[in-house]
Amino acid sequence: MALVQIENVSKIYQTGDVEVAALSDINLSIEKSAFVSFVGPSGSGKTTMLNMIGCLDMPTKGKILVDGKQVDTFNRKERAAFRGNVIGFIFQSFNLFPVLTAYENIEYPLVLIKNEPAEKRKDMILDVLDSVGMIDQKNKFPDQLSGGQKQRIAIARALVTQPKLVMADEPTANLDKQSSINVIRLMREMKDKFGTTFIFSTHDPRIMEEAEITHTLVDGKLT
Amino acid sequence: MIRIFKIALRNLLRYKRRTMLTSLLITLGIVLVILFSGLAGSFKAMMIGQITDSSLSQMQIHKKGYVSSIDTMPLNLTLDTNKYQKIEELLSSNTEILAWTPRIKLNAMLSNFTDTTNIRLNAINPEKEILVCPDVGSRMTFDKGREPGTLLNPGEVIIPEKLAKGMNLNIGDPIVLVANNKDGSVNGLNFKVAGVIESILGPQGKEGYMHIKDAQELLRMDEPEVIEIAIRLHNFDRLDKVYAAVSSKLTGFINKKGVPEFEIHTWDELSPFANIAIMIDFMTITMKIIMIAIVLISILNVMMMSVYERIREIGTMSAIGTSPSKIMSLFLAEGLLLGLISAIVGNIIGLGGIFILNIYKISFAFGRQENLLLSPTVNITELLWVSGIVLLIAIFASLQPAYKASRMEPVDALGHV
Ligand SMILES: Nc1ncnc2c1ncn2[C@@H]1O[C@H](COP(=O)(O)OP(=O)(O)OP(=O)(O)O)[C@@H](O)[C@H]1O
Ligand SMILES: [Mg+2]
Asked: A25 in a domain, yes or no?
C-alpha cells in the first residue's frame, strides 16, 4: 500500500465573499522511500498540498491516508501526535529554536515529543549529526551557523525521530545556489540511508532535476 | 520537566533587559510588602504591648453593664467576695491564663490642704498587678531612696504628673483623698504621695494609683469588693481562643432575673487604639493587594509579549508535533520562573532590609512615650505566604497567554512574520 493516498481532495479558502480553490479534486499516491517534488508557479497550491499531506491543515473535501491512517478525520491533538510520530518537517526559513544549540535543537523532538530515555538519545543525535556532517558544530547556537548549516541541522532534527515521511516546503528558497544543491543532495542521501520518504516543493529548476518524481501543479490542479 | 524549565529560563534570558525590569518591579513589590508588614507589625505589637502591659491588661471581667457605663465609674456594679471567688476558680482552671488581679476604679477629691481637685484612681493589688501588667511601673517616678521594685504600699498614692504640677505636690507630701461610696456617704483618709506617673493618651492615661485595701477602706466596703478583674495570658496570640473559652463559661452565671452576671472584654474592646491596629492591618492588606496587582499586570504583559514575539516559533513547535499541553507548560514555566526568581531576590532583599532596620533602629514616639525602638520582625509563615501568592499569581497571569499559544494553528502561526 502507498504511504500517501490522496482521493478527490479539494481545499477552498474563503476570504470574505471570495472563494479560492487552492486545490481542486486531486488524486495522487506516493510510495514509500520516494523522493517527490511538487513544482508550479506561485499560488499554484504547492504549500497547500504539502500542508494537507503533512497533517498541518484539513481538506475541505476528500480523503487523505498517510501510513494507513485516515488523517482528515483527526482532531487537533491527534494530528499533533501523528505529526510527531510519523512526519518530519523542514522549513524554508529553517525555524531552529534560537535559544537551543544545534545539538539541543535535534534533541528537542526526542525529549519534548517522543519522551525518549536519556541513554538512547545521545547515540541517536550523534548518529544524525554525523550523517549531516555537523558533529563539529553541535554546540553552536543557530545564529552562529550559516544558512546551509542551519538547514543541515533542521534536516537532522526532522530525521532524528526516524519518521516515515519528511515534508519540506521550499527548503532551499533561502539558500544560495551551491548550498541549495548540497541540501537537496543531503536529503537524497538521507532518503537512501534511512529509507525515509521525502516530499518537497520548489521553484528552482536545478532543484527539480534532483527529484525522482515531479508533480506539477497549476491553479490547484495536477497536470 | 527539568527540560521545560531549562528552555523557559533560556527564553527569559533572551530578553534580558525586559526580564530584568519586570523582575525588578515584582521584587520591589515583594520587598515593600516585607518591609512594610515587618515595620507595621512591629509597630502594632509595640503599641498593643504598650497598652496591655502598662495599664489596661489583655482581658477584663466586670459585672454585667460596667463597660457601657464606664465613663461615670459606677461603684454599685461590683463583684463581692463570693462572685470574685467563683471567677477565680474559673480562671485558675484555664492553664493558658498566666495571672489575674482585682482592681477598683474610683473618682475621688484630692486635697493638699489648700486646694482640692478631682482624681481618677486605679486601686490595685501591687503584687498581682505586676504579674498582669509587667510594665505598670515604667511610667512611674519615685523617690531615689525607695527600695527598688516597690510599686505601692498601703497609705501611698501615685498621682499623675500634671496633677502633681498643678497642685504643687512633691513626692513625700501628705494629701487627703475624699470619696463618695455607693450609698452616697462621704469618707476621707490621709495618704502620702509616693510617686508620680507620666500621662499617656487614652482613658486610662490620666489615672493615679492607690492600694486596693485603701480603696476598700475609703469606700467603706463591709466586705472586700472589686470592680474589675484584669487578666494576662501566657501567650498573647491565643487571646481570641481563651476569650471564647472563658466567655462561654461566664455565660453560665445567671442572676435571679435570668441575665448573665458578668461580662468579659478583650483589650481591643476597651481601648480606642484598637482602631489604629485595625488601620495597620488594613494598610498591610492594601500593600499586598498592590503587590498582587503589580505581579499580575507585569507578568501578564511580559507573557503576552513573549507569545506575540514567538508566534513562528510556536508554529514550529506545533508543526513538528509538540502537544498543546506541552506548549502551554513551556509558557507557564516561563511565567512561574519569572515569579520565582523575583520572589527569591525579593525575599533576600526584604530580609536584608529588615536586618538593616534592626541595626539602625527606628525610634518614634507613641503617646507621651518617646524613643520607642521599632525592631521589625519577619514572620516566616508570612514570608512563605507572600512568596506563595506571588507564584500563584505568576502562574495565573501566564495562563491566558500560554493557553493562547497552545491553541495556535501551526499553519497560521508558521505563516506569521
Ligand atoms: N490562508 C489562506 N487564506 C486564503 N487564501 C489562501 C490561504 N493560503 C493560500 N491561499 C491561496 O491559495 C492559493 C494557493 O496558495 P499556496 O500558498 O498553496 O501556493 P504556493 O504554490 O505555495 O505559492 P508560492 O510558490 O508563492 O509559495 C493561492 O491563490 C493563495 O492565495
Ligand atoms: Mg508556498
From this structure: no
Residues 6+ apart with CB under 8 A from B282: none
Q: What is the DSSP letter of B147?
A: P
CB-defined site of ligand 1, < 6 Å: A 13, 15, 20, 22, 40, 42-48
Going from the Cα of A51 to the center of ligand 2, the distance in angstroms, rounded, reads 10
- Short-list A221, A216, A222, A220, CA closest to A37: A216
Is A172:A207 a contact under the CB 8 Å cutoff?
yes
A214 phi-psi bin (left φ>0, alpha ψ -120 to 50, beta other): beta
CATH of the domain at A79: 3.40.50.300
| ipTM field | 0.95
Of B356 and A96, more confident = A96
Across the interface, whether the CB atoms of B326 and A97 are under 8 A apart is answered no
pLDDT digits (tens, 9 = 90+) for B259-293: 889 999 999 999 888 898 899 999 999 999 999 99
| Cell digits of residue B351 | 530580609
The answer to whether residue A69 is domain-embedded is no
Domain contains A64: no
Strand, coil or helix: what is B111? strand
Give the closest residue to B219 by CA, choosing from B179, B159, B173, B273: B179
Residues of chain A with pLDDT under 70: none
Shortest-distance ligand to the CA of residue A11: 1
What pTM does this model have? 0.81
pLDDT tens digits along A166-213: 999 999 999 999 999 999 999 999 999 999 999 999 988 888 999 999
| Angle ∠(B256,B259,B261) on CA atoms, nearest 5 | 85
Closest CA–CA distance from residue B314 to any residue of chain A (Å)? 10
From the list A193, A3, A199, A175, the residue with the least C-alpha distance to A88 is: A199
Task: Report CA-CA distances (Å) from A86 to A4, A190, B117.
Answer: 12, 16, 101
Which of B3, B7, B14, B320 is the mutation pick for testing A, counting most A CBs within 10 A? Answer: B320
- Does A23 map to a domain? no
Domain count along chain A: 1
C-alpha to C-alpha distance for B254 and B90, rounded to whole angstroms: 15
Q: What is the largest CA-CA distance in chain B?
A: 103
Closest CA relative to residue A105, chosen from A165, A66, A153, A177? A153
B318 to chain A, any CB pair closer than 8 A? The answer is yes
Ligand 1 pocket mutation, candidates A17, A20, A200, criterion most atoms within 8 A of CB: A20
Q: Pick the closest to residue B159 from B188, B191, B193 (CA basis).
A: B193
Q: Name the residue among B24, B105, B42 with its Cα closest to residue B69.
A: B105
